[in-house]
Amino acid sequence: MSTTTMPRAAPKMSTRRDDLAGTATLIRFMLRRDRVRIPVWLAALTLGTVATAQSFGDLYPDAAARQAAAQSMNSPAGLAMTGPSHYLQDYNFGSMLSHQMLGFLGVLVGLMSVLLLVRHSRAEEETGRAELVRASIVGRHAHMTAALSVVAGTNILLAVLLTLGLGGLGVEGITWSGSLLYGAAHAMMGLVFAGVAAVTVQITEHSRGAAGLGLAAIGVAYVLRASGDVGNEAISWLSPIGWAQRTYAYVDNRWWPLLLGLALAAVLVVAGFELSTRRDVGSGLRQSRPGKAAASDVLAHPIGLALRLHRGLLIGFGVAMLLLGASYGSIIGDAEEMLGSVDVLNEALAEIGGASIAESFASMVMVVMVIVASIYVVMAALRPRSEETAGRAEPVLATALSRGRWLGGHLVVVLGGAVVMALLLGLGFGLSGASSMGDTGFLWNILGAALAYVPALWFVAGVAVALFGWLPRGAALAWALPVYGFVVGYLGQILQFPGWMNNLSPFGHVPQLPADELTWTPLVVLTLLAAALIVLGLAGFRRRSVEMT
């Protein structure tokens, strides 16, 4: 009697290995794509922090100057802009660095983490590349694991660079142990906001929506921190930025608040992975509402379509500019008391001019706020590039709509949006400042000062459009203008950079109202240059092929 042997089932690969297959390859690919982006982020954050720490010796040359600065910071407005008052008890260079920089850099580190994670997760799904990659031997969790690994590694490397850069300065009060904790606090904040982004990318099917939710979380964290430092301290414990500040690096060197951030980051990451299993690739947990059967007459026009595409960015940045202006305006009444003892700042303010320290200080911070507005301008001006690479521009241009009208619709929104940003920051700054100073005339002076920067914002838009038209793959070079403008426009005034460096920035040619007198020539020249760049960009776009990536 013959017997039949049943074939044995092949051993199953573990589910965990299946889910993570291809992670290492994706990490290498992401690092290859960001071989410029990540080093620029790390260099900017590290060098900016180290330069600030090194400048403290000139800004506050003796203990009396540091004590005077501590007293000026010990006000509701000062604490809201910096951090908890515990740092002020021994205001050495180390505690000064943590007090003034941790909250500000926490926002930038969060911004870096959110944008990087969205770029390598949701943006890949939105463009369809993730689906193509997952058609090969790639696990369902490989993309998210690789993205989180890259972002986590970037934050850890930032912590190392900050530790080495600050610890090696040899500045009094900036110790190696404090520097290690200072760097670790930044890594903790970056990991938390990476975890936030890991959740937001599951909610919406659009990368801009996921990034917007992540940036909103950063804003809420900053507001909670500021509210708690001014009022009930318990509110600050609801914010990861508040946890980082309450390590009291260079003062008490407490490590345990970092554990709160690591625990929250772990919970958010686990939640992100779990939510990713409840949706299809390319879709979001929040389903898009079905549109109307026929587009309205507004959407049938290039400007109406562009306005619809830019609506979220315009509203989000508009609110941010209004709040940013109001926050700076709230301290303008105390500017003379806060800055009166800082000799280097007084010298910088004296070079600006103005009848009072308040006017000079308003002119200085106006540059900072306008550069934040220029971030909106660059993002909005590069939106046509996003539409092109995502494959949405080609079907639209296949209709009777010409390239010039399509790009022109976006430009109208960008240029008009620049005016709106200037008006909102001027309105927030002017109303809050007028209330702080008890001078209603301050509002109109600040509105004029803000609007004077509109030609410079248009010039930034013109550069972005020219790059888009002739060098689309290098359009991201437009980001150099806001970065360089901040370095020479704000830090350059304090650190006494040569005048020619300021002349290389479009913002350096704008009269610094209300301290300076209004001169129309540079504003007219900037407007004409912006128009020439826009015409150049339109001509280039008409001549080249539409690209897709």
Tell me about this structure.
The protein has 549 residues and is mostly helical. It is 71% helix and 0% strand. The chain is built from 26 helices and no strands. α21 (403-437) packs antiparallel against α23. The longest helix has 35 residues, at 403-437. The chain is globular, with a radius of gyration of 25 Å. 45% of the residues are buried. Mean pLDDT is 86; it is low at 1-15.
The DSSP helix count reads 26
Category from helices, strands and their pairing: mainly alpha
Compute the CA-based radius of gyration. 25 Å
Please outline the major beta sheet.
none
Count of strand segments: 0
Strand content: under 5%
What is the helical fraction, as a range of percent? over 70%
Please, what is the average pLDDT? 86
Low-confidence stretches: 1-15
Q: Please give the alpha-carbon distance between the first and last residues.
A: 65 Å
SSE pattern: HHHHHHHHHHHHHHHHHHHHHHHHHH
Global morphology: globular
Quick structural overview:
This protein has 549 residues and is mainly α.
Write the layout of secondary structure elements.
Layout: H1 15-20, H2 23-33, H3 37-59, H4 63-73, H5 76-81, H6 93-120, H7 122-126, H8 129-134, H9 142-167, H10 176-203, H11 207-230, H12 233-236, H13 240-245, H14 257-276, H15 302-329, H16 335-339, H17 343-352, H18 357-381, H19 383-389, H20 393-397, H21 403-437, H22 441-451, H23 454-470, H24 480-495, H25 499-503, H26 521-543
Helix pairs in contact: 2-9, 3-6, 3-9, 6-9, 6-10, 6-11, 9-10, 10-11, 10-14, 15-18, 15-21, 17-18, 18-21, 18-23, 18-24, 21-22, 21-23, 21-26, 23-26
